[in-house]
Amino acid sequence: MNRILDDEQLARAADVLKAVSHPARLRIIELLEAGERSVTEIQDYLGITQSLTSQHLSNMRMRGVLKFRKNGNMVYYSVSNPDVVKVIHCIRKSDTVEQHT
What we know:
Elements (H helix, E strand, L loop, with lengths): L6 H13 L3 H10 L4 E2 H8 L3 H13 L3 E6 L2 E6 L5 H15 L2
Antiparallel strand pairs: 1-3, 2-3
């Protein structure tokens, strides 16, 4: 039986979904699913400016989706909320289902 979510759970879920509701942010989550990456690696992967990359990373960090650590002048990001990776899994699953229908 499915459990009914309370208002607080729904509000947290909506906030996470807002944080990843952009193709570039979903791509970042997809990249970080495999592990920590530097800002430079993320920027190169996305093919966008450093400024725009930083805006996306900051948005997700402020909402608790990502965490970061500094090593000298390098900044590395990783997923802080492993449940957010499930969004990518759902997208992959729905795409697979659509291809087989």
